[in-house]
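anyone seen this seq b4? input:
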Amino acid sequence: MAVPLLLITLGFNRGEDGRWLIYVLGGGVIALVVGVLTWMFTRYRFTPEQLQLRTGLFSRRVLTAPLDRIRSVDIESTPIHRVLGLAKVRVGTGVDSRQIELDGLTQEQAAVLRVELLRRSQEVDHPAATAQEGSPQDTSETVRPPADEQLLARIDWSWLRFAPFSLGSLVVVAGVAGVLFQFGDDLPVDEVGLVREAWAWAVAQALLVLVAGTVLLVAVGWTLLSTASYVLNWWNLRLVREANTNIRLSRGLLTTRSQTLERAKVRGVSMGEPFLLRFVRGAELSALATGVGLGGTVKVLPPAPRAVVQSVGHELLEESGPLTMDLTGHGPRARRRIHVSQQWGSLITAALVAVPTYVLDFWWFATWPWWLPLAVLGGLALLNVLIAESAWRNLGHGLTRDHLVVQTGAVVRTRAALERAGIIGWVVHQNFFQRRLGLADLIATTAAGGESLVAPNIPLELAADLADRATPGMLDGLLA
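predicted toks r here
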């Protein structure tokens, strides 16, 4: 209810009559009543096969999750939760992105529930292997001692140097800029004499000095905000492999989060290298799993040294090489196809300028020099050439003993490694232009991640060979 209350506070006229305070207090009372009623009419229980949640006052809702379908258990504690010694548990089943949410548990209950749910899931999947570990009601043996855990990674504050080079920082800066744009006029900065004098001095200087000062201000703001966001999200990061081989990730400063993934459902990893991070040899790491996280991916490492990301990725894959191996390129035909397709944007922009200028005899920028539009179009074409060349150089594929590896991307280079055992089918797609060049998009379908891994613009003969070696016999006769 915090967001509606904030909108009410900012939306109503804050005059001298104080009516806005009545609205805020009324909204607070409504939020309190709704929260209490939700708590009173929420119940959950276990059966030998299911987790059941019943909630709702006027509209009753019953959610069930088969224990053998539980794929992840996440524990979250906001600052209010932590003050009250409580936690929120989210249970993912792998069916869709929705999760069963159990709010208001004590932190001890949440910790035991996490282990118990995953243990029961394993009992349903492998009853013979877990029959000797005790009854389902015996939770005293479910919490393993820390000595049984393998620490895969923990936060190293020297990684803060990578925070400003992440494209995710741009979202933070854009959000702050949007807030200042909306409410900046209400800030009393123009009443501060020092601010007025500084602005008057800046305006009186040359344009170059003003631009340089703006760039410096943006760079400093970018650095501070991205660093603060990095600390808030990744404080006390610990990535561990538990005694039962499940993967647990815990992190957060104000809001703490603990995510647990069943190891059998982790089908691969994805290493992302945004354009800026590549200059400082940094990268990010995500796990590809079945039915968890956002689109089947869980980010397990923030921007960090590329060597660390590769090492942790190989630990998750339980195989060395997929993130460091040399890949097979897709050849000159793929290069030609990528360059031609990338220039469509330049052609469309040129048409938007040429049609009103030469066909309709109307020039939008009559006061501009005649050469300026041509310079802009030439710069755009050159930029597209550089992007296309980068995309082709980053394009490649490979195959290891256990994993299919595909690398794509121009601005953000991504290398994904998918378990060969997790491939459930293949799609070979060719458009008109690809058929003329003998190229295709080879798509490996899977239940993990985004449900597909695409090797674009691959020669058809390489596509057939790669699919046959990754899953022998699956494409027999299809590409003949």
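The first strand starts at residue 43 and ends at 46. Residues 207-234 form the longest helix (28 residues). kinda curious what u guys think
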